[in-house]
């Protein structure tokens, strides 16, 4: 009787890369994964921006590790169910397609596996981050000696800014201290106060005008009230690019008030601060350079892969004063301080690579071109939708445009926005549906460089059709 053929031996998972020679197995695996990613990106227009619910692979590790081809098959299942920002109709959020150099830097970042916690764990990267944050601050017009630190998102950047402001102003243990911000300020401000142990009422909202900008006279009145009540102010927060309409608070006027009263001015420029990097768009954020601290998120329009947020300060030593605890398990700093001592995060990957290489790929002219394109698309869609007097349009200085029918009540506006969003998705055009000013809107974010005029014309036509039959 013939013996049964031996069972095939399972291919072992990839080992750690050899430190002595090129590892061909790792190289082959990375090349296959790269090809898989490039195929996914290159077929983006053939799939919806928002996929249906996909099938997920098993999440638990098996008794034996999977072979490379099975690992890639599982990856493909996850990719098939992912949001698709490379699609020309992906217009819902501040999540543009990824920049090519930033993708490459992400791979190198993972391969280096350096840690910005301490200088000896990331020698070149620590210096690179210091130099790049100093350049960015200078490019925005902040004074010599300015600098900052990278962070995992704008929420963390805003939190670190407020903690640094509180420490700098000697209010670290003052339970009655408050933060003053626009009524349209980002929700991360409320989160920051919660983390800082302050009650919700410690966030003092200031009324906005019809364009969504903080009213300076209302700010002045609130500061007077707080002074009479003996309540100290941690910081005044101005916003350069509100979440729904992209409004910019009057930075110069707010800076004047803060200078007169000796108050810390933080600008949440997560959306809009990048427009200050090139002279042609700097007017959109006039006065930004006068801030004590600025949050800037290049990931939101320039295509730097997530995460790419930075906190920039006119006096970056305030970060060490707020967060330095000592790292007794590390060698002393030799070049200006460990990264883990200049912010809330300890362990941090080399995300600065993605920003640095991406900016180098674009150049100043390329940055300007990306911003030019975003503004041009917003203007085109604004003109197309503005032809109908039935829509109320809300926008600011940047590439965001929200709209809602004028004559509908709150319930009808919610129904319209939901139905119209589904109609647009059927045509592979994805907008978001924010609740703003007491009613639902549809919002287009025009930072996608793949979006062409014909996409915007189709979008406007579908929206106009959705208005037929409405009161």
Q: How would you characterize this protein structure?
A:
With 471 residues, the protein is of the alpha/beta class. The chain is built from twelve helices and twelve strands. The protein has helices spanning 24-42, 68-80, 100-112, 123-139, 154-168, 188-195, 216-229, 251-261, 317-323, 352-386, 410-426, 453-466; strands spanning 147-151, 178-182, 203-206, 233-239, 265-269, 293-296, 309-313, 391-395, 400-405, 435-436, 439-440, 442-445. Helix 1 runs parallel beside helix 2 (68-80), helix 5 crosses helix 6 and helix 10 crosses helix 12 (453-466). The protein is globular, with a radius of gyration of 25 Å. The N and C termini lie far apart (85 Å). Residues 1-13 have low confidence and may be disordered.
Comma- or semicolon-separated keywords:
single chain, 471 residues, alpha/beta, 7-stranded mixed beta sheet, 3-stranded antiparallel beta sheet, 12 strands, 11% strand, globular, disordered N terminus
